[in-house]
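2024-03-11 09:14:02 DEBUG pipeline.ingest accepted 1 chain
2024-03-11 09:14:02 DEBUG pipeline.ingest length=116
2024-03-11 09:14:03 DEBUG pipeline.predict start
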Amino acid sequence: MLFMLIVKASRNSEAGNLPSPELMEAMTKFNEDLVKSGVRVMAKGLHPTSNGIRLTFPIPGEKPVVSEGPFTESQDLIAGFILIEVESKEEAVEWAMKMPDPQGYGEGQIELRQVF
């Protein structure tokens, strides 16, 4: 079963602030553990939305509207993701529970979703 650990953005990630060296070390160890166990498929961080482009489809059948970032109006921005291949939802939750706070500063949030 394929799952995505979606790392939600924070004020700090949107500002382009890198995590502390301690958090970087903890995240590196977590990723190494995923690789050693054979469950990690891919892991990537994303640039802040200030470098992003959003396409919206306000009128069905017509061309989308293109907007440049930052996208400060949304509380559901994504800072990165990890794809894992596991045997069950329970195993995916176990791995998600081992992940360090991805943002630090008490701002971290992870969403776990199964991939079709």
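2024-03-11 09:14:41 DEBUG pipeline.report The chain has one domain: 2-56+64-77+86-114.
2024-03-11 09:14:41 DEBUG pipeline.predict end
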